[in-house]
Amino acid sequence: MQKIKELWGKIWFRAVTITVAVILVIVIALGTTVGCLWGDVISSVSSFKHLQSRNDENKEGSVYSMTVKGGFYFDKFLANGGVSSDTELINYITSNITKGLMDVSIGESDVNCSAFTAVTPSNDVLFARNYDFDKTNVCITICKSPGKGRYKSFSTVDLNYIGMDPDKDVEGLMNKITCFAAPFTPLDGMNEVGLSCGIFMSYQGNDLSANDSGTVATDQKDPNKDNITSTTMQRMILDYCATVDEAVEMISNYNLHDSAKSSFHYMIADATGKSAILEWLPENATDKTDNDGTARTLKVLYNTDPAYDELRGSDDFKYQWVTNFIVNDHNEYYESNNDEKPGWDRYEHIYNRLNSADGVVEDENAAMQILSEVGRRTWNGGGGVTVHSVVYNLTEKTVLWVANENYDNKAATYTYSFKTGKLTTLA
């Protein structure tokens, strides 16, 4: 009887899958009322492309791209008060994006990343970022028509965040439809007016002296505020904000709930050259562990802060940089134990490179060179991989993007321009 039940379950699942696929084919062919319901999904999924093949031996996942049509129900998401957990986000996505026909999951992540801002000799403002992780599939996600009052954007999404197996290619109609949820989980991005953002592990709740790998996610509880998660916060600022000040003001109106059971801090920058690191910290920290995620409040460290002047040696240009430890020093331990700060070695290297040139780099390729120097595959003994490196030109609204530390491989290097709307490879 059990075998019969299992067989019937497989037959039922296959029948449902085939039925959905047939319906979608009919919708495409006939353009029925159902087509209006699924139209944006169909258009977006049809643009889903496999750009770069996986290389399991080198721990490199595949690279995809997708041009997202429509607003992917994000206005409704915010109007409903957002969500306070990954579970609620999954429920929203499955009911609105996949129409309840397929499941979505959000994977955990250990985002040991680096980022910095700099300028070129012609005063173009650059935001450069490494996404350090393990082998995973990513999707360059371009939102070209998000709707009235929202900006077009370019972002990078780790498909593990929406449940795609990092050890397999994204194949089959159902998986590709699920990838329509990618706009809800950007790890970094830039919009058409030159506002950029990125997410980084902060290791709060981590007792470093005990080598405890656990972290405590920020989980604010103000009943008078709506709720937002890490990646949906980044989507919000990409879609609705033109400046750092606008982004900080908008974010201040929400309770933050860190995604993926981890603790994060964030960096944003705009075309004026202003940038900020956003951290959620306790008002009165008594130790280094910071173990109450509900008691944290937003702290913002701007690149115009006088605290940076001594580090930089001048205040001519306010460049900024970040890795994986809290920069708003809030207790004596963090002020005196640099060697135990996660990512301190990368932080120091980036600072030395920027400080020696007063925050000026020749061009996007020079910024990419600094990113390559702290790539995970070779830095400090190696381990893992820098899944992507990206340099956003916030002045020209262009992107230079490299997959899996293949800095010398033109086939793994992509450019994008908001002026042309084209994603191209250098090969």
Structural summary, described in words:
Residues 1-36 have low confidence and may be disordered. This protein is α+β, with helices and mostly antiparallel strands. 45% of the residues are buried. The chain is built from 11 helices and 18 strands. The strands form 3 sheets. It has a 9-stranded mixed beta sheet. The protein is globular. The longest helix has 29 residues, at 2-30. The protein has helices at 2-30, 33-46, 74-79, 86-96, 173-178, 230-240, 244-251, 307-312, 332-336, 344-355, 364-373; strands at 49-52, 63-68, 114-119, 125-133, 138-143, 153-158, 186-191, 196-201, 226-229, 254-257, 264-269, 275-282, 296-302, 321-322, 385-393, 398-403, 413-417, 422-425.
Sketch the major β-sheet: 9 strands, mixed
- Which stretches are poorly predicted, pLDDT < 50 over at least 5 residues? 1-36
Q: In one word, what is the shape?
A: globular
User: Helix segment count?
Assistant: 11
What is the number of strand segments? 18
Précis, in short:
The chain has 427 residues and is an alpha+beta fold. The protein has 11 helices and 18 strands. It has helices at 2-30, 33-46, 74-79, 86-96, 173-178, 230-240, 244-251, 307-312, 332-336, 344-355, 364-373; strands at residues 49-52, 63-68, 114-119, 125-133, 138-143, 153-158, 186-191, 196-201, 226-229, 254-257, 264-269, 275-282, 296-302, 321-322, 385-393, 398-403, 413-417, 422-425.
